[in-house]
Design brief:
Oligomer: single chain
Structural class: alpha+beta
Number of helices: 17
Distance between the termini: 58 Å
Amino acid sequence: MANNYTDHPELRFELNHPLMKRIVELKERGFRDKNDYDYTPLDFDDAMDSYDRVLDVVGEIAGTTVADNAEGVDLEGPHHEGDRVRYASGTQANLDAMVKAGMNGMTMPRRYDGLNFPITPYTMCAELVAASDAGFGNIWSLQDCIETLYEFGDEDQHSRFIPRVCAGETMSMDLTEPDAGSDLQSVMLKATYDEAEGCWRLNGVKRFITNGDADLHLVLARSEEGTTDGRGLSMFIYDKRDGGVDVRRIEHKLGIHGSPTCELVYKNARAELCGERKLGLIKYVMALMNGARLGIAAQSVGLSQAAYNEGLAYARDREQFGKAIIEFPAVYDMLALMKAKLDAGRALLYQCARYVDIYKALDDISRERKLEPDERKEQKTYAKLADSLTPLAKGMNSEYCNQNTFDALQIHGGSGFMMDYPIQRYARDARITNIYEGTTQLQVVAAIRYVTNGSYLAQMRDFEQAEVSADVAPLVARAKVLADRYEEAVAHVKEAGSQELQDFAARHLVEMAADVIMLHLLSRNASEAPELFGKSARVYARFVESEVARHHAFVLSLTPDALADYRQS
């Protein structure tokens, strides 16, 4: 029986990282729930065993039920019936299986019927689901919108809405509009306060809304009349039970067919404010998007794993010229690089998730009591680290996902172009990952300040001091040389004194930073588990050396005058 968790020991390795000790300590608050809830872990080992068991359950559901339904869901898709959405039959079966297993509201406190899980094992669950059906992953993983409501809503909202999500109700985040895609400060959905009813009313149109007919929606709307920028936007909670929102249409998409992407019409829809007015974009959407970007990074890793699995299996079975094609250097070269990118990207994803866990847990504690000075310092440190790695995790994993599915399809040859093999679905599903929740180009915009302020370089230098095995030490030495080249490239751009040049070079500098950081993370993994990561670390080191050399040469060739060659009339 297939199990997306136990079939891949790399995941259990990432789960058992030393930082989990601190994460569990913060999340469980001295295991204070153990006398009130019979499923509360009693100590660290019990907590880790609980995470492992849940991942096993999700891995089995994903590897069987979700995987078995994936092709049918892709062909059937959701149905637009009147003003509502009806999921494909397989999608509903998937949801039923997850609800029956209690896999909803995973990160929410137990007092709201959640599992009180850290972000890291929950993110792993998102990867496991996406490896079988990325479209279903979108629906199930949107439960993490509840994190934003938990963080910024009031206690009354917590008590009314969080248990419903934990019981299996679905969520969506309604942000984009026909004239406001990446530029969310242009959102114009109107929110007006109804004095007679004591509620807010929403009017307007939202577009490209994933799972747009969900039970509960977080909605970005313009609450301040006469404003045109982000300062006039607030966040609202819309409950489908109250009515007032119609699904105008479901988009006909290239991939992720199981996930309904909707155009919504708000007609005087009743809603309530989440948090404070005017902070919808400035504060709340930023928190919401960071969580979503981590989710898309997990989806990307899941798809990369699925693509590698398919490419490897096909290469072993397919014979040409009297032998399996996996024996040809041109093929095993592709597979080795796919695996290296997969392992490196996954290492980055879970390093980021662990950083998020620590600062989020400390944030939550700060709502109960004042943090101690050392806790405030810890919170600030990990918040900055998480913020710096989130755009790298989303940007690089979504790009690697596209590359890996492309290469796996290529390994299939003409068969990959046919609808008979699942690789074509993975390739179609992958294409959206570097577009939605912020394109790769926008991830570069988010990351470039950590290039210019020295944060990425400081992380590289810290990694250089880590103790590793004798076999891995040469990789760390090579990574130091790459960091020196990165530092030289950054200095060259800064010395030019041109904002346009910095913007132009940003993608190259950010990719260099990500390459070196991922090489360090993968090297550390190889030091601890050479049987899992040794080959990938060595393959990835060669790949990164060529990539950094390419970026380094290009950036050093740039001058402000050279940009005239690139501007299009």
